[in-house]
Design a protein that fits this description.
60s Ribosomal Protein L30, Chain: A, 27% strand
Length: 132
């Protein structure tokens, strides 16, 4: 059985496009987030570090809504428009994870949804796996 997770802190995508987060049993899957604000237009963050911080904050809201924590994330996939931004994204990542970091892929892409978006991050994990 799968369940869609909602949080009032992050806007939902248009109906019948995707789910921001799904949980099946104790596994969870977080769609690729960007730093787009809840108004659906404004991009928060002028650089990759600031955008990654916004994205990780969204992920915190969703993991908590699912009864999990950021340390329950086992795998991240990070898309950047400039591979040179890797250290700035990793700096933001270090602010929200403790202990062993998730497995991670970092991929440079030609473009994301709009030219202002520099980073997109998706994740998957297991609720409660960091507890023991």
């Amino acid at each position: 059985m799968r369940k869609r997770i909602y949080t009032e802190n992050v806007s939902e995508p248009p109906e019948k496009t995707w789910s921001n987060m799904l949980v099946s049993d104790d596994l969870f899957f977080i769609s690729g987030f960007t730093s787009r604000a809840n108004d659906g237009v404004t991009i928060e963050g002028a650089n990759a570090y600031e955008q990654a911080r916004v994205i990780f904050r969204k992920m915190v809201h969703y993991t908590e809504a699912a009864g999990a924590s950021m340390n329950d994330i086992l795998k991240l996939t990070i898309f950047v428009t400039d591979i040179a931004d890797n250290k700035e994204v990793w700096r933001a990542r270090a602010e929200v994870f403790q202990g062993d970091f998730p497995a991670c892929s970092l991929v440079q892409v030609a473009a994301l949804a709009t030219p202002e978006i520099l980073v997109e991050i998706e994740g998957m994990g297991r609720i409660g796996c960091s507890a023991g």
